[in-house]
Amino acid sequence: MNIQAPGHPNPGLDRSYGPFIGGEFLDAGERTFPAVNPATGRHLADIARCGPREIDLAVKAARGAFKSWSTTGYEHRSTLLLKLADALEADLPRLAMIDALDIGRRVSETEVDYRIAIGQYRYFAAAILNFEDFGKPIPNGYSIARRQAIGVCGIIIPWNAPSIMAALKLAPALAAGNTVVLKPDENASLSTLELCKHIANIFPPGVVNVVPGLGEEAGGALTAHPDVAKLAFTGSSEVGRIISAAAAARLVPVTLELGGKSPNIVFPDVQDLDAVVDNAAFAGTYCNGQSCLAGTRLFVHDHIYNAFMDKLVAGLSSLNIGSPIDATTKLSCLVSKTQGERVLDYIDIGGKEGANLVTGGHRQTIAGNEHGYFIQPTVFEANNSMRIAQEEIFGPVLSVIRWNDYETMLEEANGVRYGLASGIYTADLAKALKTAERLEVGAVWINQYFNILNGAPLGGWKDSGFGSEYCRETLNLYTHLKSVTMAYDLPQQWYLK
Ligand code: NAD
Question: Which of 151, 161, 168, 416 has the fewest Cβ atoms nearer than 10 Å?
Fold first, then answer.
């Protein structure tokens, strides 16, 4: 039954959501957990707390659908992905509002998320058409290298951008002919379950199954299930290690998109300081800082440091903090009290470590949204060895590090356990490219942070994981390679002679 969610005319939420298995929603049953609006504290819906029984049902449904889906023509799979993209586009305002209500991010951002997610479904619909097998003639025949779907993919995603996180894995997995059991995050299940309503109209039953639940319980059951042939995970490095161990125990392939603490480097020769400050502020606070890609270690050169900091502080301290569903909001609330307290703890740690707090540092109250953890954009002057510069905070907190010597700066930029993204601002193209070459990260953005493109690989090095997404090579991660070699003739008998 549809209800009207508070705070929005009608995002069409159900009162409760069961798991989506075999093309239909099952009853939510007695064991549920609530979806709560983190800004207002209002209850949005009840969600089934799935365990091993539901995971097993879902894996069976996915296995049942695998043979037909993997052997259906890739052109058909491509067409269905395009249909899904169209359906999401038509439903975009509603879905983006559901994410804003469910995770507290401003709706103008969750709309952008959907455009990125829709782009992914379209990109892989096209990429699979160009994902050719290869081969070569041999003296007495042919050898062909085939790429074939792996089987049932167990996918686990986090809460920060549910539409993108689902698309980054669903699109390549389905395009390549796999079937899927996906577990959304317990803080952000609503939009993925709503996605299933579109999937039900487009894909054959069992091709996509979504099983909401808690991390260890539902996620643990999924990673341990003997019929899951491939694992794909996005989340923290700590849980990534658990997933990797589960994959190792069963010897199944795994891809991991994990945390980040990305360096954003400003050289003294930048031409337009205002534009660089704008980009750096955005890099650190987009998603309320809850992005694995956030440029949270900001290296600013000594020669422009004071002017840069004046502009950064002036800009961030006047950023519009407001309700997630207000179109004018620039920064909204964190996903939960737990996350809010964690960020405030880190702000406290920064002070105790001797970092200099130059702006922000406090929770702010927004009328009508008193439940929410709205954390002011926070800037510390820090050094690279401090915990606030080394650990992923996942909130709008920037550690600014003053630099002078290029080699020392580069050593510090790489001196962190993560290796996900980075930014560079300089007027000197050669310097930018040479620096890009030496950064130990999966993505370098020169002049424009978060310049995410379909086709440009994005994936981690070091503790940020392995296996790039957004690109054609991602299809390799969702396929097995098999060579088929054919001789024209049977060899003459020689062995038993
Ligand atoms: P998390 O690791 O706590 O949870 C992620 C998912 O794993 C959730 O669905 C959760 O239920 C599940 N999970 C938790 N414990 C599990 C277990 N023992 N077995 C199986 N599944 C389990 O991460 P989070 O705090 O929800 O998300 C934030 C993290 O995600 C940050 O570290 C962020 O950097 C990372 N992230 C990375 C990327 C990327 O592309 N590299 C993108 C977004 C977020």
Answer: 151
